[in-house]
């Protein structure tokens, strides 16, 4: 199907999705019910979804309200694969609070505003990447493609209206490929697209986390395009129905305070958090930790101006895929509730001004015998049976650490390293490596490695296995 058919298909999906659970059913008289829509496998929403649910922070805070003489509360969690059905349920007034990516948030705000009962506001951020690395394009492992231009005329799987699709449209446009006429985009759910990619029914898949990392980790795909090449912030956030929040402001406050609890826990104990998310989502912990670990997604609830500016720029994408009502972003974004919830969690304006990832790789690199100080170079080695991954000061030290572990007969479960050009945290054994003198440089994609070699002719391509074998102290 061509992109021109997507508006109708998206409308059908939204309408059909509105036929599911009624949030007002089976509620005890006098009990306030709150229905939370989340995406367990979209692991940049975990502080408002999977992790929040696993830790019970929301229920605990609502119980405190009850103990203090308030009403009784009932929390219902509804899990979805994408943001579209959450929006449909909010339009139908059957979900009160939901989390999704930036492009779906635009659709949510546009679709819900016609009715005051369903109208939503963006009240917090779950996680973000300042360059856009949360969305990626992958191809089959035997694909000859090395850049997006190689996909011209091919079929690409994407969930229309999702963050992954928004990135694809922008990336193809920048690469000089018409995102409507130059390729054939199939509107598919992530798991359907993954199957289509594996069976070569499509030449590529463009999706949001954690699908690219999962398929690459499973050996079913390789990375073709890192969304960080766009250098445009991408994020996930939380929307709440204004009518519900007006009727039950204490519930929204409890939710946002609980999200702050979950955010602090993830940033302080990322490895433990990844284990909980893996169990709650069914995703491998190695994949969850790729994104939720230090140096991955920036988990920060504040509504940063840079993210809101990017959201305003994304309105053009919204117009390109259908007839959506105009959305006033400044009215859609409301930081008042979060500012109120921040009491006891620090200063909101200080957190708002922070631009660095609150979770960094730190500690002592025991292989090279140095402290880990540069987050742009720091990686981690996860050995089977270890209590936690061990830090590495830079990619060369990381390779030496892997070499030493293998020489000692230890099993390496996963190795994480930041891309030398874009900073994206990635699997070291899936990266494209270059050797330049005594240094080793990892890149998320062959195209990135090609760009570096064009400016550094002395750099030589090596495989990960070769780099581990030949690296010297």
Structure, described:
The structure is a single chain. This protein is an alpha+beta fold and 473 residues long. The chain folds into 3 domains: 3-130 and 234-353, D-Maltodextrin-Binding Protein, domain 2 (3-Layer(aba) Sandwich); 135-230, 3-Layer(aba) Sandwich (D-Maltodextrin-Binding Protein, domain 2), CATH 3.40.190.10; 364-470, Beta-Lactamase. 39% of the residues lie in helices and 21% in strands. The strands form 5 sheets. A 6-stranded mixed sheet has the order 2-1-3-10-4-11, with helices on both faces. It has a 5-stranded mixed sheet with strand order 7-6-8-5-9. Helix 1 (6-17) packs across helix 4 (84-91) and helix 10 packs across helix 11 (270-281). The radius of gyration is 22 Å and the shape is globular. The N and C termini lie far apart (54 Å). Residues 1-18 form the signal peptide. InterPro entries: SsuA/THI5.
């Amino acid at each position: 199907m061509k992109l021109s058919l997507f508006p109708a298909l998206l409308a059908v999906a939204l309408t059909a999705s509105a036929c599911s659970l009624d949030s007002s059913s089976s509620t005890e008289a006098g009990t306030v019910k709150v229905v939370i829509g989340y995406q367990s496998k979209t692991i940049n929403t975990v502080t408002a979804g999977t992790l929040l649910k696993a830790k019970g922070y929301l229920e605990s805070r609502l119980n405190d309200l009850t103990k203090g003489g308030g009403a009784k509360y009932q929390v219902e969690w509804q899990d979805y694969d994408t943001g579209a059905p959450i929006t449909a349920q909010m339009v139908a007034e059957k979900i009160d609070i939901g989390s999704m990516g930036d492009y779906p948030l635009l659709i949510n705000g546009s679709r819900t505003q016609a009715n005051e009962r369903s109208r939503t506001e963006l009240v917090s951020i779950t996680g973000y990447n300042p360059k856009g690395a949360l969305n990626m394009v992958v191809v089959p492992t035997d694909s000859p493609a090395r850049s997006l231009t190689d996909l011209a005329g091919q079929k690409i799987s994407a969930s229309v209206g999702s963050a992954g699709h928004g990135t694809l449209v922008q990336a193809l446009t920048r690469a000089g490929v018409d995102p409507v006429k130059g390729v054939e985009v199939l509107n598919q759910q992530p798991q359907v697209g993954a199957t289509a990619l594996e069976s070569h029914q499509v030449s590529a898949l463009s999706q949001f986390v954690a699908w690219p990392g999962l398929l690459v980790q499973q050996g079913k795909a390789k990375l073709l395009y890192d969304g960080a090449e766009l250098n445009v912030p991408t994020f996930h956030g939380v929307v709440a129905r204004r009518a519900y929040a007006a009727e039950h402001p204490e519930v929204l406050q409890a939710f946002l305070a609980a999200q702050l609890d979950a955010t602090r826990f993830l940033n302080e104990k990322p490895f433990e958090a990844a284990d909980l998310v893996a169990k709650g989502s069914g995703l491998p912990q190695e994949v969850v930790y790729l994104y939720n670990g230090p140096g991955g997604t920036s988990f920060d609830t504040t509504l940063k101006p840079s993210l809101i500016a990017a959201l305003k720029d994304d309105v053009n994408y919204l117009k390109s895929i259908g007839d959506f009502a105009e959305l006033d972003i400044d009215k859609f974004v409301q930081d008042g509730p979060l500012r109120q919830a921040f009491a006891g969690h620090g200063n909101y304006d200080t957190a708002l001004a922070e631009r660095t990832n609150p979770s960094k790789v730190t500690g002592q690199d025991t292989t090279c015998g140095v402290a880990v100080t540069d987050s742009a170079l720091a990686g981690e080695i996860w050995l089977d049976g270890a209590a936690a991954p061990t830090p590495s000061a830079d990619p060369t030290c990381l390779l030496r650490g892997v070499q030493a572990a293998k020489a000692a007969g230890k099993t390496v479960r996963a190795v994480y390293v930041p891309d030398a050009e874009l900073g994206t945290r990635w699997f070291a054994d899936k990266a494209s490596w270059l050797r330049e003198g005594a240094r080793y440089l990892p890149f998320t994609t062959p195209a990135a490695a090609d760009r570096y070699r064009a400016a550094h002719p002395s750099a030589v391509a090596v495989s990960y296995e070769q780099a581990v074998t030949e690296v010297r102290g």
